[in-house]
Every structure is written in C-alpha cells, then in structure tokens.
Design a protein that fits this description.
Chain A: InterPro entries: MetI-like (IPR000515), MetI-like_sf (IPR035906). The structure holds three protein chains of three kinds. Chain A has twelve helices and no strands. By secondary structure, chain A is mainly α. In chain C, the strands form four sheets. A six-stranded mixed sheet of chain C has the order 6-7-8-3-9-10, sandwiched between helices. Chain C has eight helices and 19 strands. The chains are: A mainly alpha, B mainly alpha, C alpha+beta.
C-alpha cells in the first residue's frame, strides 16, 4: 500500500460541490413536506387560530363581528338554557348513539371474525355501504322509511301488525337510528382489525379446558378486545358529536345540537364570534375524549406488561 | 363425587343447547344487520324509479321520468358538475401532497416528526362544521386577483383536502413502509437520482396504494357536504349541498335520482380500482 | 491525486474514515487501498463495522470524518448515484415491476447510453451470467440463485470502477451458495473487476479474495492474503475467528509450565515460553496424537475424556491438568497419549 501523493487539501470547486450536494440532500425532505405542511398550516392552522381569536370578538347587531376581547360568548353558552341544553343534547345523543353502535359493531365484527371466509366479503361489503354513500343520501333514505307514508308504516299496515298508519319521523329514535347507521362502519372496521389480531385457536383451547361460549367470551374475548372497544367508542363519539345533518333532519325540531348551532349562528344569524365559541367548545370536548381514551388504553397496556 | 360425575355427564348436552342457541342468534343478527344496512340504500334506489310525483308508499309504477328530469335540469346538472370538479381537484391536491409527505416520513429522519404528524393528521378528527367555519371566517373576505376566494371551488377543494390528505398520508405511509429499502438504494446505486428513483421505481411499486388512496380522496370529496355548505354559493354548490337544501324545503323524487347518481359515481370509481388491482395482480 | 509507485491510481482509497451512531463507534479511523482488479473481502462478526464501511463506500451513509477516493476522485458526501460503483445486495433487490432486461438496462439508461448499445450490453452480460433467454421474465419468476445472478449482471453491466457485494449469498441455501460462489470467482478471474465483498462466512472470504480484511469492533485486525491469514493470524481475535481453535491458558515460571490453578502440565516446547501468563492456541486439526514413548519436538501429556465421531474424523476431548480442549484425528487412537 504505497501512496506516492495524497493531496492534503482538495480543490475549492470540489468542496463547494460536495457542500451543495449535502445541502440539497438536507432540504429534500423539507421540499417533500412543503405542500402538505402548507395545506395544514394555511387551511387548518390559520383558520383554527382565527376561530379561537374570533370567539373573543364582540358581536354587534348587523355586523359579523367587532374586534375586541370578551368572554361573553362562552358565558352565553353557559348561561343561556337553550345553548346549555344544546350542549347537553349533543353529548347525550353522542353517548347513546356510540353505546348502541359499539354494541352492534362488536357483534357484527365478532360474527365476521367467527364466520367462514366466504361470508367475510359479504359482511364487509355490507358494513362499507354507509361509508360509500353520502350522508345526505342516507338521511333521505330514512326520510322515506319512517314517516306516515313511508315504507315502515306501509309494511306494518299491509302485514296487519298495526291497523293505523304510524310515523316515527322527527323522533329522537329516528335520529339515533340514523346516527348509529352512519357511525357503524368506523366502529366495525376498528373492531374487526382487533379481532383479526386474535388467534382463533384461543377459543378452541378454552373450549378444551371446559369453558362454555359465554365464559370464553367473558374471560378471553372481552379482555383482549377492550382496547379496541375503547378506540371504537371514542371514534364514534367524536364523529357523532360533530355531525349535525342527521339529528336535524330526522329528529324533532327541538333537538338542537352544537353542530346545528354553529351552522345557524354562522349562516342565519351571522354571529361569527358565537359560532366560533361553539366550534371551540366542540373541539375542546373532542380533544378531551381523545385524550381520555388514549390515556385509558395506554394504562391498560402498562398494566398488562 | 357423585355430583362431579353428574356435572361432567350433563355438560356436553348443555353446551350443545348453548351452541345452537348462539348459532340461531348469529343468523338473526345477520338478517337484522343486512336489513338495517340496506334499507336506506334500497328505498332510495327503488324510489328513483317510481312514477309518482310524491315520495310515498305504496309505489305507483316504474318510470324513468325523474332521471330524464334530472338530466334536463341545469340546476342539478350544474351541481353534479361542481361535485365532479371539486372531487377531482381534491384528489389531485390531497394525493400529491399526501404521497410526498408520506414518502418524506418513511424515507428520511425528520426533526419534530411527532409534531408534524399531528399537524397533518389532526383535521381528520375534527368535524366538518368546525373546519368549514374556520375556512369561512378566515377566507370570507379574501380575494385573489379580484376573484373572491369565498364561494370558489378552490376553497372547497382545500377544505376537502383537510380530510382527504391525512387519509392519503396514513395509507401511503403504511404502504411505503412495505417497500424494500434496498431496492430504493439499488436504484441510486445504478445512477438514478432521488427524483428519478421516486417516479420510476418507488411509485410503480406502490401503484395499488396510490390508486386506492386517490379513490378514497375522490369518494370523500364526492360525499362531503358540511364544508361545501359553508363554503359554496348558488353557482358553486355541490350535489350533496343541493340535495340537503332541497330536502330541507321539500323532498322530491329528484333527490332519489341525485342520490343514485352520486352512488353510481362512487361505485364506478370503485370498480375502476378493482379492475386496476386485478390487472396489477395478473402482471405480478 | 493519489497514485501508487507504478503510477496506477488505486480503485479505492479510504483515509481515516470514521463513523459513529450516537455514542457507539461503528467504524474507527479506517485506512485502506484497493488496487485495480483486486478482490478484497471484509470479514468479521456482526457489528464489526464491515457493512457500515461498505455502505459508506456505496454512499448510503456519510462518514463523520475522513475521505473516500474512487479512482482518484474524492467521493465522500457524493450521493450514491454520483459514484462510479454498483452494489449487489443481499436478496438481489431487483425491481419487481421490471423485467430482467429492464432491470439490467436501468443503470445503462441512467448513464445515458443509446438504445442499440443498451440492448447489446444486456445480451452480453446475460450471457456472461449464463441467463440468456431470461430477458422477458419478471423477478418473481426467477429462483433465488437466478435473481442473484441477474443482480450481478445488472451491476456488471454498468462497468463500475468497483463492484460492491453486500453479503450476496447469505439468503441462499448451502448448495446454491457454493455454486454461486464459484460463479463469482470465475467472473472475477475472467473479467478482472475490482471488488469489495462483505461477508461473515470465512469460507466465502477464503475462496474468493485476493486479500481479506478482518474487522472487529469497528477496526481492522489484519489485512492479508487468505493464506497469510490462516497461516499467521496477527492477533488473538483473528486466531479465534478463523477456523476452530483450542485455547490453553498457561503460566510459565522457572522453566516449568502450569495451568492457571497451579497444577503442573507436562508440556515440552521447541522454544520454551518466557516467564508469565500465556494463552496458547492450537488448531485441532494440527494436533497429532501419538503413544507416550514417541519422541516429538513439542509435546503435551494428556488424558482422553470422550470421543465424538464427526463423519470424516474423530474428535477427542482431552484434559491436561485443568486444561480442557480437543483435537481431530482421522483414525481412532488408543487411550493414553501424548500430543505433538
């Protein structure tokens, strides 16, 4: 290994070239991220801050907003019984709908998991329907099902189960049926992925050891799917909190939700600060639910490990 | 002792009863869920072919007149056109931004990776009302070259991208992780620059993922109405917005036709992905 | 520019190349030159820094310090696609959506060759690796060995200054590995390319290399020809790493040799050890067993513990004082023996 001449310093041009190549390499990921970050910052971050700021602005009649600093709008949400009722209604609807959805979704996902393979595609396709069809189309479908001249009433009367035409339209029940329908696929696919991670032989070995199906469910399936149930529940809750078309269109007129209030304050009353205050409250509740669900599920994992 | 024997003897019989009960319950559930999932879809489909002018049961007869009416109505056709333009725009914007970001995430070490991830993903968890409101009050008075941003299709595209882009990002990040790193290195090794490598080696390898995430974006945008309601005016309203507004005034058979047209557009896109997938399977 | 005495520039020159990950030193101050047409192998256990070194030569990782020169051009900090190298990866890393011909043509296209020339080169190089007629196949229609030969062809087609082999045979089963090893050897003899080969398999290193670099913990233990490495290991690590060996910890004092517990060992050596603690290494295959009466230059009286039959030879597990070791003998032997 005899080296006659090893240059101690390389030429300026070469080092310049090396430096610019390294610089380019460093900026490549930044360039790749630029479009996504631009969208997220300009069309999400900026509006979020604007909304936050807007919620403290003053509202004077006939004007969208007047710059200022006031907590009146938050105060109004708390003090006005109509608004307070809307917050409560939103949470109550979301809770009931999520509970029902998780129970239905759990059975649905478990069945899909247990049934032979050829059933799987059919059941998954079924669950996909609400995801692929627009919320408005689905609302319209139920809108033709529940009223006096709708399919339900017609079917019940013509089969002789009831004698008078009946209407379930504009009831809380109809709103819940619609909400559950729309959030079922989220829940189903979350839970199905959890079930798919479970070795089905666990059930066989549990049966071998003498446990009946209900014992096996309680002792094996339920503990193994708890994290999934939590995730599915919080996902449904978040989704049903934010939607407003379904409860508004199918539920009674008095069924005010936060989404409806945001829309109304924005589009009809032109009260931007109050609409923003409602939106911020909605975001706060959603963030809280996500945070609680997250900390609950991580604690469970810590406990097991 | 005797007790134990008796218990062992009766266990299989009891279990058999339980099992058949469970099987029956399973069947009942399948029938229930099938009915539940199909009611709104089928009712709408059937109603679109009903001849009566009123939305009511029993049906009066088969007719295509509502389809003819839909196709002849500039109002509905404009809304459909708007929907398609917005959906295609959303697909292009969210797919290109989401795919590039996902590639950056899976290929490079990034500073503040978790923060960036959160920033990109967060809009997906927020309701359309909130995102729509934010965009409306932020860009309400903004004009670009004399054209107001508010009410333009452009703003709706960006609004829909807030949901579509995180989804593309999520899907593509998972897909890129399946790409063998050495194949990417081999391309650089043979003399191809990063851009060339990305377009000639990486993208073709994940073409199915790219295609499905683009269709996700398309479907989301076609069906979304909340943000569109906030951000459009009479000239730019999308099909779901028009459906919502006419449902609030009076439900007509036109609505059923619109719902079917929208669903057909979505399913046509899905058929495309299925065909693409089959083609790529055959080639591999 | 760098040149050796005869005026030829080395294909590759590494100077004080260093790389660390966090607090862990992966490669410490490496200096090395590869002559034109030389086949150099980095051999070492996992974590010895051999793969990191290869990846730095290939441009997939940047050295923290030092410089890398390929044919007299400084290349560290250049990305892989600006370096005149081509790598054969572990499982081939063929582009799954391109045919064999397209895979091979890829590097040629990147170098701006014209179509007829590309076609000619693809045909030529496929003939070299004996895969003529496989042009239109996709990688998933090839066997593991064929894939690796296509990878080899793809790299050779661009005629790089250096071919880099990143454990190319480790994913194959034994018979295929031996077959492909001979293939690589043949190609090197016929085409005389310069190559860096990374492996943890010493038989591969021995069979293929002009020189072997033994690496351990990020540093070079020894650089020598295969013969030199096996005849004269430069360090205890090399002795242990190459081939099987028996280690005897000894203490020499006052002309007597004892084991570490102080028990006397009847060891006679041609050149008696100096005073102090020693570890004596023996190759099991080079220990001869003989009757106690036979006179030898170096000898040790031992007791035979038990015997294993290895198919070709017998392995005797031996004991001398507190020392336990073994030797291989082609034929069964009588119990009480001495060793030469």
């Amino acid at each position: 290994m005899s080296l006659a001449a090893i240059p101690s310093r390389e030429t300026n041009a070469a080092s310049e070239g090396r430096r610019s190549a390294a610089l380019l390499e460093r900026f490549t990921p930044l360039m790749l991220l630029t479009p996504a970050l631009a969208i997220a910052v300009v069309f999400f971050g900026l509006p979020a801050l604007t909304m936050l700021r807007m919620s403290f602005n003053l509202h004077v009649d006939q004007r969208l907003f007047v710059p200022g600093l006031t907590f009146d709008h938050y105060g109004e949400i708390v003090s006005n019984p109509l608004f307070r009722g809307a917050v409560w209604t939103t949470i109550r609807l979301a809770l009931i709908a999520s509970l029902v959805t998780v129970m239905l979704g759990y059975c649905f996902a478990m069945l899909t998991w247990l049934k032979p393979r050829r059933w799987r595609l059919y059941l998954m396709g079924l669950a996909l329907a609400p995801m692929l069809v627009s919320e408005i189309s689905i609302i319209f479908g139920w809108w033709m099902f529940f009223p006096k001249n709708g399919l339900l009433s017609y079917a019940l009367v013509s089969t002789g189960i009831v004698h008078e035409k009946i209407s379930l339209m504009y009831t809380e029940f109809a709103a819940l049926v619609g909400l559950t329908y729309l959030s079922l696929p989220f829940c189903f696919f979350i839970l199905l992925s959890v079930f798919d991670g479970i070795d089905r032989r666990l059930l066989e070995s549990s049966a071998d050891l003498g446990a009946g199906p209900f014992t096996a469910f309680r002792e094996i399936l339920l503990p193994l799917t708890r994290g999934g149930v939590l995730a599915a529940f919080s996902q449904c809750f978040i989704w049903t909190m934010g939607t407003y078309a379904t409860p508004t269109a199918l539920g009674p007129d008095a069924l005010w939700t936060m989404g409806l209030l945001v829309q109304e304050q924005m589009l009809s009353k032109h009260n931007w600060p109050l609409a923003s205050a409602f939106a911020m409250l909605l975001v706060a509740i959603i963030a809280m639910v996500m945070f609680v669900a997250r900390s609950l599920s991580t604690r469970r994992i810590d406990y097991h490990d | 002792m005797i007790d134990t024997v008796a218990a062992v003897g009766s266990a299989p019989r009891r279990r058999l009863g339980e099992a058949s009960l469970l099987a029956a319950a399973g069947w009942a559930f399948i029938i229930f869920i099938t009915t539940y999932m199909l009611i709104p879809v089928l009712v709408t489909a059937v109603m679109s072919f009903n001849s009566a002018a009123m939305v009511r049961f029993p049906l009066s007869g088969f007719s295509l007149r509502w389809y003819a009416g839909f196709l002849a109505s500039p109002l509905w056709m404009d809304a459909l056109w708007n929907s398609i333009v917005v959906a295609l725009g959303t697909t292009v914007v969210s797919a290109s931004a989401g795919i590039l970001a996902a590639w950056a995430f899976s290929r490079y070490d990034l500073p503040f990776k978790n923060l960036l991830y959160l920033l990109i993903m967060m809009p997906l968890f927020l309701p359309g009302v909130v995102l729509g409101l934010g965009l409306a009050i932020t860009f309400g008075g903004v004009q670009i070259a004399g054209v107001p941003l508010y009410g333009s299709r452009f703003l709706v595209v960006l609004g829909h991208s807030l949901w579509a882009m995180p989804l593309v990002f999520l899907l593509m990040e998972a897909t890129f992780r399946t790409v063998d790193k050495r194949i990417v290195e081999a391309s650089g090794d043979l003399g191809a620059g990063p851009v060339r490598t990305f377009f000639e080696i990486v993208l073709p390898m994940v073409s199915t993922g790219v295609f499905s995430s683009m269709l996700f974006a398309l479907v989301i945008s076609l069906n979304e109405f909340m943000m569109a309601l906030f951000l459009t005016n009479r000239d730019t309203q999308t099909l779901p917005v028009l459906m919502w507004l006419s449902l609030r005034s009076a439900g007509t058979p036109n609505l059923a036709v619109a719902a079917v047209v929208l669903a057909v557009t979505v399913f046509a896109s899905l058929t495309l992905i299925a065909l693409w997938h089959i083609r790529s399977l055959r080639r591999a | 520019m760098i040149a050796d005495v005869s005026g030829h520039r080395p294909a590759l020159h590494l100077e004080n190349v260093r790389r660390r990950y966090g607090g862990i030193v992966a490669v410490r101050s490496l200096n090395l030159s590869l002559a034109q047409g030389e086949f150099l192998t980095f051999l070492g256990p996992s974590g010895s820094g051999k793969t990191t070194t290869l990846r730095m030569i290939g441009g997939f990782e940047q050295p923290d310090a030092g410089s890398i020169w390929i044919k007299g051009e400084r290349v560290d900090h250049l990305p892989p696609h600006r370096r005149d190298i081509a790598t054969i990866f572990q499982a081939g890393a063929l582009f799954p959506h391109k045919t064999v011909a397209e895979n091979i043509a890829y590097g040629l296209r990147m170098r701006g060759l014209q179509k007829p020339e590309i076609t000619a080169r693809v045909r030529e190089v496929l003939a070299v690796v004996r895969l003529s007629g496989f042009e239109e196949r996709y990688p998933n229609q090839l066997s593991g060995g064929q894939k690796q030969r296509v990878a080899l062809a793809r790299s050779m087609a661009v005629r790089p200054a250096i071919l880099l082999f990143d454990e190319p045979l480790s994913a194959l089963d034994l018979s295929l590995r031996l077959q492909l090893r001979s293939e690589i050897k043949r190609l090197h003899e016929e085409h005389g390319f310069s190559a860096i080969y990374v492996t943890h398999d010493q038989s591969e290193a021995m069979a293929l290399s002009s020189r072997i670099v033994i690496m351990n913990r990020g540093g070079i233990e020894q650089v020598d020809t295969p013969l030199g490495i096996s005849r004269a290991p430069a360090s205890e690590f090399v002795y242990n790493f190459i081939g099987e060996s028996c280690c005897m910890p000894l203490v020499a004092s006052g002309g007597e040799v004892r084991d570490r517990q102080g028990g006397a060992i009847d060891l006679k050596l041609h050149t008696p050890p100096r005073e102090g603690e020693w570890r004596l290494y023996l190759r099991p295959s080079r220990i001869k067993m003989a009757a106690a009466a036979e006179a030898c230059e170096n000898s040790l009286e031992v007791q035979v513990g038990f015997v294993e039959f290895l198919g070709e030879s017998y392995r005797y597990h031996l004991r001398a004082g507190a020392l336990e070791f073994f030797c291989d003998n082609p034929a069964p032997h009588m119990p009480r023996s001495e060793i030469a």
